[in-house]
Design brief:
Number of strands: 27
Number of helices: 5
Length: about 400
């Protein structure tokens, strides 16, 4: 049976019935068949381009996508980039900020492009004028000081510079004066009204330097007044064992063409409220014509006074005139008319007055005089040397 099947197959092969050819060549006959070509025609097959009669297969550019290689281990990839640009990253600050999204700062050593010099210059750019950046060292130091206080750059040693008196007054705010020895350059010697000695520690006012103009005393300084202990220029008064105080008029005083009573600049003294006083006056008066009388009065500068006395013209046969200043409320000044002197200022008239009174307020008792009529050219004079004596009797 098997021999019959083998013979049948062999007969078929020999007859060539149902035998395929390879590339148009019959498999019948002796020898080897030569097979050439791939059987794939040249052309773009999708991701592959075939050429060389099917002998060259080339993967197209951009054909291998991430999806086709995402299962490839990174260690299998050759030719790793060595720069950021090799990974498609441009090295800008914005890209670094985006890359460092975890908020951690990069160390200076991690960024090889940022040098020590750049770091130092960045710090130097941030300081103000109180510090100086020395690039060559590098060094940060205090800037030099100028003006009222000076110091070299980088030095802690300061010194006085140039300043005004106003600046010094502001600086010495505790009100304590500077000692003479603190002022450098003050030498001993005569400085005008002052002589300096002992290396500037002793200042002496020179003799005969302080005159009347340097004094702050009140009153009038002249050859008939003296400087009292209360810093007042006053007319000398004499002490009296009976308690009288004597005032001597030190200069002539005129009233010309004026009927208004004028205060005598010398013959006056202080009284106290409720005080009782006695006065005596020895006057020398004169006038330059007979028109009108010489008028005199007693007064207090505040409150009122009341009292009684008399006035006697010793140079003429005139009658004694009573001086009556009545109860409180009467005007403080009451005129006492003494009569008309002769028409000659050098024809002196002696007048004596006696008066006792009480005052209602603290005030000044004053003697006043004038012309009884404001006649043209009329002058009445009270002469220097006239005397007022007074004492309090209670």
């Amino acid at each position: 049976m098997i021999s019959q099947i083998r013979k049948l197959i062999q007969d078929k092969l020999i007859s060539g019935v149902n035998i395929k050819t390879i590339n148009g060549s019959s498999v019948l006959g002796s020898g080897n068949l030569t097979v050439t070509g791939s059987g794939v025609s040249d052309g773009d097959k999708g991701d592959i381009t075939v050429s060389g009669s099917g002998t060259v297969w080339t993967i197209d550019n951009n054909a291998v996508t991430n999806a086709k290689i995402n299962d490839v281990d990174w260690s299998k990839v050759t030719g790793e980039p060595t720069t950021l640009s090799g990974y498609g990253i441009s090295d800008t600050k914005a890209n670094f900020d985006a890359a460092c999204s975890d908020g951690n700062f990069l160390f200076v050593g991690d960024v090889t492009q940022y040098t020590d010099e750049q770091a130092q210059d960045a710090v130097g750019a941030m300081i103000d004028t109180s510090l100086t950046y020395v690039d060559s060292t590098p060094l940060l130091q205090r800037s030099a000081l100028t003006g009222a206080i000076t110091a070299s750059a980088g030095s802690n040693t300061t010194a006085l510079g140039s300043f005004t008196k106003a600046q010094l007054d502001t600086a010495v705010s505790d009100g304590v004066p500077l000692f003479v020895g603190d002022i450098v350059g003050l030498t001993d010697g005569d400085k005008g009204d002052i002589t300096v000695s002992s290396s500037g520690t002793v200042w002496n006012i020179d003799a005969a330097t302080v005159g009347v103009t340097e004094l702050s005393a009140t009153g009038t300084a002249n050859n008939t007044t003296f400087l009292r202990g209360d810093n007042t220029w006053a007319t000398p008064t004499a002490a009296d064992p009976a308690g009288w105080t004597t005032i001597v008029k030190s200069a002539n005083q005129d009233v010309t063409n004026n009927a208004t009573l004028q205060d005598d600049t010398h013959l006056q003294f202080s009284v106290v409220a409720g005080g009782h006083y006695m006065i005596e006056m020895n006057l020398t008066i004169s006038g330059n014509n007979t028109t009108g009388d010489y008028s005199a009065a007693f007064a207090v500068t505040a409150g009122t006074m009341k009292g009684y006395g008399n006035c006697q013209n010793l140079s003429a046969a005139a009658a004694v005139q009573n001086i009556i200043i009545t109860a409180a409320g009467v005007a403080a000044t009451t005129t006492i008319v003494t009569g008309a002197p002769t028409a000659d200022l050098d024809s002196l008239v002696a007048v004596r007055m006696f008066y006792s009174f009480t005052a209602s307020a603290n005030a000044t008792f004053v003697y006043r005089f004038a012309n009884s009529a404001a006649a043209a050219g009329r002058t009445s004079r009270t002469w220097k040397g006239s005397i007022l004596r007074y004492k309090r009797i209670d």
